[in-house]
Amino acid sequence: MNQLKKVAAVGGAVCLMASWPLVVGQIAERVFKDNIANIGNQLISAKVLNYDRGYLSSHVKTEIQVTDPGIKAQMQYEGLPTSWILNSDLQHSLFAIHAITQLDGQANQPIKIVTQTQLNGNTHFEVDSQVTHYQGSTWSMTFTPMSLSGDVTTLGEIDYKLDVPSVQFSNPDLQIQVSNFYGNGQGKKEKGFWIGSQTLQADKIAMSDRLGVDDFTLENAGYQNTSSMDADRTRYDTRQQFNIAKITAKDGVIEHLNVIFSMGQLDVDSLTKIAAILEHYADITPADAQNLQQAFDRLISKGFSIALEQLDIGLAPGQIESKVDLKLPEDTQETPQDPLEVVKKLTGNVESQVPKAVTEAFPVLRQGVNELVSMKMMRENGDVYQMNATVQDGNLVFASGKKVPLMAILMSAMMQM
């Protein structure tokens, strides 16, 4: 009997090993089709045209299409394709599915995607390309060999790295050259918006026009984004940071530019409804518009904070600095929001500082600062001009005691945009 059990066990193991590639193949097909189904959004759609599953390998043909009417029409006008066929060759290994994907009919051409998917659905990907050139009716764009790699989990979490050594864009009026563009990110899309962090950086961005009049260069230009939810997943915070080490133009040099902008305590449910409606912005119905207004009203009634944490402009004579911090309290009644009443509820402060040496170097700026000083909205303090004001009862109240309606300032700013 024991000998029979051993023979049965060995036989069972052999049968399992023999059938395992088929099991892996079935898992691969399910994972592949699920992933393709998740690609579709307002801009593009994807579908599997053919899935030829074999014993040790499979071949898949997939179509990606641009669905946004405006983008599709523009691409057609430029003579660019609006759909692509992808061929994927899958290998069923013992614990993973390996795939190589390339454009149909372009096996020797620029882009190759290599993925390794575990049986639990987690995937590692590597995308590499050769020199890639796109030609429109009046423009062209060229990428040097670039790479994108990372990992995606079944929970939607992604960790990626991007490296693009050079990008060149040109049309009859403008040329742009981007050198050493790279980035990385970690996080996931949840309820319609990004949770995590991202960093993008370019060593140099050079722009020149046809006449050479408005040429300028950005050096070490970077962008960082961090977004998160609270423990209850009811409030959302986001922080955007822009840094440029140097800006060079024909009329002068900015030695650095640093901007940090943040919004906090935003209502997650309201943002989710807004994101869901805006996903099909091209065909919003009157009911959608009403729901969108209600979602915005709820977002405002729940209260939030908004801040320009830092605005530093470095010039040769000195550095201009500004900060703005505003808070809107929660309205427990959740009534429709009147813009005038909302402005009256805002609290916060505004700070700004301009060195006298900077105003002396720039006559236009000196004129503006002199006007603010005469109106008691700015004051001299040693070798700088300073603005300090608080926001209360719908007014901007300056250190001098002068009050200016905040709505008037906001309307004036909108008129200048």
UniProtKB/TrEMBL annotation:
InterPro entries: DUF945. It comes from the Bacteria. It holds the Pfam family DUF945. This is DUF945 family protein. It comes from Vibrio rhizosphaerae.
